[in-house]
Specification:
Length: 292
């Protein structure tokens, strides 16, 4: 059986809420999601609010973003940058009653910065971009992930300091397993400064906040808003809403997608709100163009 969620899930924010209800450990700068279930195939779409380290212990997890596709198999891992939308398909191992077991570590900027300082990495920043790729998980990492599982059963009783120590242990083990991860961590901390126009055109259909767009452009929130206003003579929030609504009208007219599908596709998270602002902009509801 295959399951697909029409809405874009914000990760990790939405993953501990219904209908997902996945195990979660939280600390300032870190969220850890654990999922162990039996499923043949589940599909969906996520917006990554933080950088993601994904480990698969059983089954298979495929992520797609842009023109890239990566499949993470048993005892493999991958690191993905924040503020991207990924389509995913995950499935259990047919030889183990479709068991699917994985962990997701969502890392914020300050956590990575603290780890990089702690390591005292001597090498200079890499001249060439280290590409995203799937890496093997060694026995030490497998043992580490297994040792973390009991924490999810009593997550409300675990001291934040202990969670932080376990996280630092993980990052050291990851770098020891493959030192290319250190360069990837550095790249996440030294993102190339992009033009505002490029950033907003690439991301306006994603469920991004203005803070996310500022991060992607390599600017502070105040600098982003100031430069945006000077370029477009409007606020980022107003521009973003109008750009999404223009795209919605285009899709309603020229695609077979329903009103509900279009709402989520263009970055809105509530159909009623989408219909209200659409009518305010164009003078008629989306259902006037298409029934959804």
């Amino acid at each position: 059986m295959s399951v697909r969620n029409s809405a874009i899930v914000k990760a990790p924010q939405d993953l501990s809420e219904p209908p997902y209800n996945q195990g979660i450990l939280k600390l300032k700068g870190l969220s850890v999601i654990e999922s162990c279930t039996h499923t043949q195939s589940t599909k969906g779409t996520m917006f990554l609010e933080d950088h993601l380290l994904l480990f698969v212990l059983e089954g298979m997890y495929t992520v797609r973003f842009g023109n890239q596709e990566y499949t993470v198999h048993k005892n493999e891992m991958i690191l993905l940058q924040k503020s991207i939308v990924v389509e995913y398909e995950k499935s259990g191992d047919p030889d183990s009653t479709y068991l699917l077991d994985y962990m997701m570590f969502f890392l914020k900027e300050d956590v990575l910065g603290e780890f990089i300082k702690l390591v005292e990495f001597k090498s200079s920043y890499p001249a060439l971009l280290v590409p995203v790729c799937v890496h093997s998980v060694n026995d030490r990492l497998v043992s580490y992930l297994e040792s973390l599982k009991p924490y999810f059963k009593e997550s409300d009783k675990i001291n934040d300091g202990l969670v932080k120590l376990k996280l630092l242990e993980l990052l050291f083990d990851v770098v020891d397993a493959d030192n290319r991860f250190m360069f990837q961590f550095l790249q996440l901390k030294h993102k190339t400064r992009k033009g505002i126009a490029e950033v907003i055109e690439e991301n306006f259909m994603n469920p991004v906040s203005i803070s996310d767009l500022a991060f992607l452009s390599g600017r502070s929130l105040s600098s982003f808003k100031r430069e945006f206003q000077a370029m477009y003579n409007t606020s980022p929030l107003q521009w973003l809403r109008n750009r999404r609504l223009d795209k919605a009208e285009e899709l309603l007219t020229h695609s077979n997608l329903s009103v509900t599908d279009i709402c989520f596709t263009i970055g809105f998270e509530n159909v009623a709100h989408f219909s209200k602002v659409f009518k305010k902009r164009f003078g008629y509801p989306p259902s006037a163009l298409k029934r959804g």
